[in-house]
Amino acid sequence: MRLGLLYSGGKDSTLAALLLEDFYDVTLATAHFGITDDWEHAERAAERLGLPFERLELDESVAADAVDRIREDGFPRNGIQRVHLAALEALAATDEFDAIADGTRRDDRVPTVSRAQAQSLEDRHDVEYVAPLSGFGRGAVDRLVESTLDVTVGPSEEIPRADYEAELRAKLLAEEGPGAVAEYFPDHDQTHVTGRR
């Protein structure tokens, strides 16, 4: 079965790919808006894993809506959630895959996919939605990653990743300057996979 996995090049989506590769023909798909070329980092990570890679270009109106939501809320959670659901929708709509997946964990605050959202995707697009990390908490994921992947960890501004946050940050930076990014996005560490162990 062919499976498209939303892929950032970070530890969660990479671990999800490793868990699924024995059961599916996995293609790593990075959703982007064309705001930055950060997708190239995910492509290099996919090459190191030996898995096929493709870009999934989302309409820039999704980014604009997400940034408007971030401004309105004063925090990024709902904007990122909006983009994640749009990316899953776009991936399912390609008709290339029998199943779609992501790297969401049990204890993620964002993004998340509810049972109703998953069932809606499955019914409307005749695909299966798979969330291989949904039973794993952060500690379990970190232990599995430590034994299987080489990972670089650091502040969001310094770690190259192909995730929604990076492009939303870039859009805010272009529109409002560096102060806006710091205002809406809390400091936190990101990961970038550099290879398998």
Detailed description of the structure:
With 197 residues, the protein is α/β, with parallel strands linked by helices. It has eight helices and seven strands. Helix 4 (77-93) packs parallel to helix 5. It is globular, with a radius of gyration of 16 Å. It starts with a strand and ends with a strand.
What is the gist of this entry?
The protein is 48% helix and 20% strand. With 197 residues, it is an alpha/beta fold.
- CATH fold field value: Rossmann fold
CATH architecture: 3-Layer(aba) Sandwich
Helical region count? 8
Number of domains: 1
Radius of gyration: 16 Å
What is the arithmetic mean of pLDDT?
93
Helix and strand topology:
Layout: E1 2-6, H1 11-20, E2 25-32, H2 39-49, E3 53-57, H3 60-73, H4 77-93, E4 99-101, H5 115-125, E5 128-130, H6 138-148, E6 149-155, H7 164-176, H8 178-184, E7 189-196
Parallel strand pairs: 1-2, 1-4, 2-3, 4-5
Antiparallel strand pairs: 6-7
Helix pairs in contact: 3-4, 3-7, 4-5, 7-8
Annotation keywords:
single chain; 197 residues; alpha/beta; Rossmann fold; five-stranded parallel β-sheet; two-stranded antiparallel sheet; 8 helices; 7 strands
